[in-house]
Amino acid sequence: MALLNKDSKEALFWAFEYYYSGYPSETTNYIIQIYYDYYYVLNPTFEKYMFIQLKKVTLENENEELALFIKLIIDNLIFRPYTLDTFMLRNMGLQFEINFDEIEEVNKEIISSLMEQENYVYLSTLLMQCEKYRDVKELEELHSEIIDKMGSHIKINKNVKMKETNALIGNCYKEEFILKRTIILAKIINYYSIKENQKMNRSVYIENDIEKQKEELCKYKTQYPAKLKEDTKYATNKNEFIGIFQLERFKEENKTYRDNYLKNWEYYAYDTPYWMNRFALYEGNKDEEQKRIIYEDEEKENEFYEDMDYFPDESSKETQEKSIGKIEKVSNLNEFYCKYGGRNVIKIEEEEIVDLDLIVVY
């Protein structure tokens, strides 16, 4: 949400809260997913730049270089125009019901017909749900068919587009099929936007001053746990639209999340890589039956709490509310679509949007 609101400081804050909790690869995957969900359609040339930068990351210094990569990408996305087209169609495609028994095979004729009708909702549903598109070769074939169809309306260098895209989906940084299908969906919508004479954003990029960026990153390294109380800069429930997403706290089994956080935070924090390493230093292990952390001896346990000095139930009300404040479902998906979809290429009717359940974050 911070990216869509063009709030650079908040976007970087949340990205690195996740990153420095021990999830560097996951954060990278998510940033790439965001690019295809929101930015690719109007910024297709940024794709090549982004992956050139990613290739510069070395195994020897992966943790620091990935952090620099993420900051560079956020700094570049923050000033770019975006659309909700891919994001909305991807989620509609994942959620809408379709009876595949009526379709023996999703073939070239069906794809061509949907393109002629400009029925991108149904096309996205086939792409996201049809089992055959788990196969990279089938995705490549679909992309080829789309280019052939769009090639009668716009100029596309098929050989170049196929080579570039095949390399991406064949060696995708994120292994799950969702991103691979999202790449194809984003390209389909981009071709359509060119056909509709949408103006593409200029190929202008912010470059990293490496040493300066390293200094900048120090601000986003959360110094657990001593500074956690003062570093809680943004509330998790700040944005009115956060309730449209399928959050863990909405699940029935997590209704006691406030008590869990205040009274038994150690057990629930344990699986986070950062905290798992911390507990290991003090010989603390997770006991699933008792739902608590068990230490090898009492002295180690005392050392842990003395060194960490972190007691959520003793933190200020303001800090508690920023971390675990109630998230109300005060806005709906259609309101989100209307507020942020000003540059959308494909018109989605309100009745189609209201059929969507809460958005699942991938």
Explain the overall architecture.
- 54% of the residues lie in helices and 2% in strands.
- The chain has 362 residues and is mainly α.
- Among the domains are: 8-82 and 204-220, no CATH class; 248-324, no CATH class.
- A hairpin with a 4-residue loop joins β1 (284-287) and β2 (292-295).
- It is globular, with a radius of gyration of 23 Å.
- The chain starts with 7 loop residues before the first helix and ends in an 8-residue tail after the last helix.
- The model has no long low-confidence stretch (mean pLDDT 87).
Question: What layout of secondary structure does this protein have?
Answer:
Elements: H1 8-19, H2 24-39, H3 46-55, H4 62-77, H5 85-95, H6 108-117, H7 120-129, H8 136-150, H9 158-170, H10 177-195, H11 210-217, H12 228-231, H13 257-263, H14 265-269, H15 273-281, E1 284-287, E2 292-295, H16 298-308, H17 317-324, H18 333-340, H19 350-354
Helix pairs in contact: 1-2, 1-4, 2-4, 4-11, 5-7, 5-10, 6-8, 7-10, 8-9, 8-10, 9-10
